[in-house]
Design a protein that fits this description.
This protein is of the alpha/beta class and 151 residues long. The chain contains 6 helices and 6 strands. Strands 3-2-1-4-6-5 form a 6-stranded mixed β-sheet. The longest helix is centred in the middle third of the chain and has 18 residues, at 42-59.
Length: 151
């Protein structure tokens, strides 16, 4: 199992072995570094994508193939709900559903009113969705299981 936590300043990955990998991209940090507009522009998003990809390539070989991806992040739960997942205790959200939601964000970036789709126009939402999308795509996770946060 691989556990993903997208924090404000970094993204943490806990592996089955207990090792924790840290990526220098997080929702707030990525938004502050790359997004000047709300929603971000295409050029801003492309630059952010390149930075996130660079971070992922650094750790790609350390993440075992065939593991499942899990998170308890409230922001990822929100993304899954925006993407059409049922508001259940545990949500399984596919990479295809993440891509569809990213396409909706892209339409908002191109001028479609965010209110039409209910997509947040915030930079941090865009950064979180971007990190999740790139993580799942480049590390070949077909789905993410979103568990309720403990507590």
């Amino acid at each position: 199992m691989t556990v993903l936590h997208i924090a404000g300043d970094e993204t943490l990955i806990r592996l089955d072995s207990g090792a924790v990998l840290t990526l220098a991209v997080g929702s707030r940090r990525t938004a502050a570094a790359f997004f000047r507009h709300e929603p971000p522009t295409e050029a801003e998003m492309e630059n952010a994508i390149m930075a996130v990809e660079d971070e992922l390539m650094r750790v790609r070989s350390l993440i075992p193939e065939g593991t499942s991806l899990e998170t308890t992040d409230a922001a990822v739960r929100g993304i899954a709900l925006l993407g059409g997942a049922a508001a259940a205790g545990t949500i399984v959200f596919s990479v295809e559903a993440v891509e569809r939601l990213f396409d909706r964000l892209a339409a908002v970036m191109l001028g479609r009113p965010a209110s039409v789709d209910g997509i947040p126009a915030s930079r941090e939402f865009a950064a979180t969705l971007l990190i999740l999308r790139e993580f799942m795509h480049h590390l070949k996770f077909a789905e993410v299981t979103v568990r309720p946060a403990a507590g």
